[in-house]
Write a structure and sequence with these properties.
By secondary structure, the protein is α+β, with helices and mostly antiparallel strands. The chain is built from three helices and five strands; from the N terminus they run H-H-E-E-E-E-E-H. It has a three-stranded antiparallel β-sheet with strand order 1-2-5. Strands 3-4 form a two-stranded antiparallel ribbon.
């Protein structure tokens, strides 16, 4: 995957299928289950910790007054829940190894 700027979900499924010797359909079920589990946990207010990889959590952004960029009019922006990923120490170290 040298010189690629992103990996799509379909490519991730192919990678899982190839490495586990499963069919693409089974690999897709696994990938979807992992993603769905993360989303449901975050919706429920839980924090997800994957040791060595990182953690997912929700950050709360309060209400504020913004501006419409086109008209300049003030606009009330409602509070939001924003997903946040914090990489783990092992992942940071792997990404910053010399010679890569």
């Amino acid at each position: 995957m040298a010189n690629k700027t992103r990996m799509t979900k379909a490519e991730l499924v192919e990678h899982v299928a190839r490495d586990t010797l499963l069919t693409k359909k089974h690999a897709e079920i696994i990938v979807n289950t992992v993603f769905d589990s993360i989303v449901e946990s975050l919706r429920g207010g839980d924090k997800i910790e994957l040791r060595g990889f990182g953690s997912f959590r929700i950050r709360h952004r309060g209400p504020r007054i913004g501006r419409n960029p086109k008209t300049g009019a003030k606009v009330a922006v409602p509070p939001k829940r924003i997903p946040y990923f914090k990489p783990g120490k092992d992942l940071r170290e792997l990404l910053n190894e010399p010679g890569e």
